[in-house]
Amino acid sequence: MIKIGFNVLAWSAIVSDQLKPVIDRLATTGYDGVEFLIGAPEEKAYREIGDHAATAGLETTAVFVLGPDENPVSPSEAVRNKALDKIKWTIDRAHDLRASVICGPFHSAFTTFTRCAPTEEEYERSAEILYKAGDYAAQAGILLTPEAVNRFECYLCNTMQQLACLVNKTAHPNVKAMFDTHHANIEEKSMSKAIAYIAPLLGHVHISENDRGTPGSGHVAWDEVFTALAKAGYQGWLTIEGFTRNDPDFANSIGVWREFSEPWNMAEGGLRLIRQMCAKHGLE
């Protein structure tokens, strides 16, 4: 069944007690789940916030990224091993959160470039790490969904064609693919064709406007997106990911230099849009 979530990065990248009122309001607004960035090292906080979300009646998902010292496609075996260790640590924290899905561009290091196009060897390295991570995730009952992101943030996987290649190489039941409308709006020729291409592997979806503001306020072709998801028979999360400057350190790290929408405008307006689109196109 379709579940609707909201990523709290619109407020903070840090999992802490400060997010508890946000979680409570997301629950009363009508969301099914809440998504958190896993990054801060304070392990206890993840279990506490996961318990709070469960008490509020919300399920959880998670997102994370890897840095250059923990890059799955590095020619250095030591660096690749660090990548696997970090992914395993993230799976542990996601388990603490009670999360069912981990998404993000963790197939390679975020904003780390070689000044060359991706190579077959890099896809093979990434697939090997993802397969081992899939084995670890299976023990926790967690689905890993690596994400194709735009060319300014990654060079390994920008399109659904590239992501499908990687996921098929990985060939693990706990490793599927993620589709994000913001990145697809930049990189894909056609939203509907991209969704149809990735449909057999699709495990998670981010609903994000072209400018990362309130879904429905920009020029993403939402009717095309939801028609394609319905044709694909997608059953899973539709999670809104929008950004603000509420957390300056996080905003600076991803190049967010202005406000796109106020967080609760995103949450309330985005929920309306998703419900309208699901009803219109028969997604249940």
From TrEMBL:
Entry GO MF terms: isomerase activity
Keyword hit for Transport: no
UniProt xrefs under Pfam families: AP_endonuc_2 (PF01261)
Classification via InterPro entries: Sugar_Epim/Isomerase (IPR050417), Xyl_isomerase-like_sf (IPR036237), Xyl_isomerase-like_TIM-brl (IPR013022)
Record PANTHER family: 3-DEHYDRO-D-GULOSIDE 4-EPIMERASE-RELATED (PTHR43489:SF7), ISOMERASE (PTHR43489)
Superkingdom field: Bacteria
Organism: Chitinophaga lutea
Xylose isomerase-like TIM barrel domain ranges (all copies): 23-252
Name under which the protein is recorded: Sugar phosphate isomerase/epimerase
Record key words, sorted: Isomerase
